[in-house]
UniProtKB/TrEMBL annotation:
Keyword ATP-binding: no
Transmembrane regions listed in the UniProt entry: none
Name of this chain's protein: Erythromycin biosynthesis protein CIII-like C-terminal domain-containing protein
UniProt cross-references to InterPro entries, sorted A to Z: EryCIII-like_C (IPR010610), Glycosyltransferase_28 (IPR050426), UDP_glucos_trans (IPR002213)
Top-rank taxon: Eukaryota
GO MF annotation terms: sterol 3-beta-glucosyltransferase activity
Annotated Erythromycin biosynthesis protein CIII-like C-terminal domain residues: 288-392
Keywords noted in UniProt: Transferase
Amino acid sequence: MPSDYADLVPEGVGGLHVVHSPFAFSHVVEKLSATLEKGDPDAALKAHLAEFAKNFAAVADSVKATTDAWADVLVANSVMISVCTAVSEVLRVRFVGAHVQPFLPMREFHVFLPYMPPRCLNLFVWIVMLTKLTSKEMHEIIYAWKQKWGTPTPPVSPLERVYRLNVPSIFGFSREAFLPPDDWAIFDHVVTGNWIMSPEDLPQKPSKSVTDFLAASQQPPVYLGWGSMFHISGRYMTEIAVRALRRANLRGIVYEGSSATEMYTLALEKLDMSQPDAKELAAWAQANVLFIGGVSHEWLFPKVAAIVHHGGAGTSAAAFNSGVPSLITPFNFDQFAFARISVERGVGPGPLPKFQRLRAEVLADAMLQAVSNPKYKDAAKHVQHRVMSERGTKLAVKALEQFAQTRDVWEEDAKRTAYGAPWPITPPDFVCGVVRTPARLSDVTAAQK
């Protein structure tokens, strides 16, 4: 695991840290800011992949050095899946995907687009997207890295990983958010529910400034936080947040952001003092707005009146679990899907525009609706009840334990005829050799419920 997460490891549990991580998020944000600010998912994906390709060998070497002769199973999310696929093949160890987004092709809908294409095109769009997750440059880099470690087979493409290897996938999202479609019956997967730690289990404790601010008024504040997302500048985002709160006359807790760059950090001192009402706005904000660093969503969200966020998978899960109305102003990728789900479940007004088109007055009106109309609170409580009845973390552990005993995609792949990447319109289950095994993750965990 990255050393940044060392404090999350429970006492008494051993662990090793990845020793080299050049793919620093703050570095990427600063370098690619001009591209990422446009809010174009395709351009953002290309930019990230190009940067990741440059660092692939160093990251893969680090993961291999950490896991060689020690690990029995590699578990990776969508960001690290190409690295861990290559490392697991070189080391010949088992491999499983662990995702918090519904990252498998389906005909029902597409997760990563700001619009909904015609249903008949969804599967084709998925295939196109999986194809875009690699490039000739990335292919050559992975190939060279595998050859260096004595594995001369060509790299596994995202299409092959899904359709030929049928890599087992454990999904940590709630069925209340995404109900797995019938298309997924061919894939070795399980949807466990959200992976949520209780506030008591988290090492991070709230600061006195946060507890004092919450206790200062009988009216709970509104939370505004956009995670690692950014647009234009920290000053611009600070202005949006504070002016929306002032217009709605609501107290607020504003997250400074996790982009790890001063350029995009939100702070009270970043208000634009050249504006005619700057002094008045700053004085009001000094008394009614608290800017904070990192804090546990599981602890904070149930204590606020409404949650304004970007729609990231983790933040959305915590919002659904809180029983509090939420408003999503998406930036990119799966955030659009979580924004749609939030509105469909009735937990907040909307749909709101993506952040790049958001105006303070629009956000202010939406926040007032969220805190004043009881239907949003009622819907949020209903979703909370459904989500909390799931045993996501426990089921994920059960699935991982069972997989470690039953599935070895590399052993199975060696015994099968090698299929190429599937043609987009070919029935993948019939032509592309989808793995069928007696014990599937979905079968295993279904028996646990």
